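Inverse folding, one chain.
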């Protein structure tokens, strides 16, 4: 994953998060060495795939800021949880922590700003933009310029909601995501807000042309560590569809 680094060329890496990832050896150059959520490929259309994902569990948090700042902050909070800031379930020692293996991708999803009441978090690590217009009968969210984000890691498949360690940080929550169908646009390179928004618009235009209805917000999923060369990076825009 690389949500914890700044996405544009020439901007500094988040040194703390980078050092943690490097020291613990979370990823190799090949993203496929890391566990990913299971899915069935329904069809392929150039860089776009339609996929049916099996249910999975995520650890997530909601953060404020632009895409880079939110990615860094969200990554650190959830990485802190899986590195051991938690309480293991069923332990005779109530304070025993448990490390959870890193998976891919890290996903960010832009969210609308809350009203006077608190909006509950939902569950990979993902960014989701704020709603700006209606499209295909659903509310569309613009990633570019968003200031509130949901960031999540997918938990290893060996866990259930009852067997995962409990986060000590109340800002980190666990959520089970049911089986869903997604349209996924894959690409390489760095990510800027404008560039990601362009990819979202491209995927949505493809779906509109085929009269495929969308559900919810688009998500940005990233699979590689920050030292991966741009041409080898795997990025995906994911949009749930009916």
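Residues assigned per position:
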């Amino acid at each position: 994953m690389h949500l914890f680094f700044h996405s544009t060329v020439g901007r500094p890496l988040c040194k703390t998060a980078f050092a943690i990832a490097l020291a613990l050896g979370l990823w190799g150059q090949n993203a496929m060495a890391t566990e990913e959520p299971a899915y069935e490929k329904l069809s392929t259309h150039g860089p776009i795939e339609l996929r049916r994902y099996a249910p999975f569990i995520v650890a997530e948090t909601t953060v404020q800021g632009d895409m880079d700042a939110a990615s860094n902050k969200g990554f650190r909070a959830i990485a802190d949880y899986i590195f051991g800031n938690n309480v293991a379930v069923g332990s005779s020692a109530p304070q025993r922590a448990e490390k959870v293996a890193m998976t891919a991708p890290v996903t960010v999803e832009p969210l609308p700003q809350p009203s006077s009441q608190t909006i509950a978090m939902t569950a990979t690590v993902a960014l989701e933009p704020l709603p700006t217009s209606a499209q295909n009968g659903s509310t569309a969210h613009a990633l570019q310029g968003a200031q509130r984000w949901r960031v999540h890691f997918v938990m290893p498949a060996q866990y259930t909601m009852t067997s995962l360690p409990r986060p000590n940080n109340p800002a980190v929550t666990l959520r089970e995501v049911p089986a869903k169908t997604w349209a996924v646009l894959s690409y390489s390179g760095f990510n800027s807000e404008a560039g990601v928004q362009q990819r979202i618009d491209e995927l949505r235009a493809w779906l509109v042309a085929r009269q495929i209805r969308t559900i919810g917000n688009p998500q940005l999923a990233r699979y590689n560590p920050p030292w991966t060369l741009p041409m080898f990076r795997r990025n995906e825009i994911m949009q749930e569809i009916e």
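Residues 1-32, 116-124, 130-139 have pLDDT under 50 and may be disordered. The chain is about 20% helix and 30% strand.
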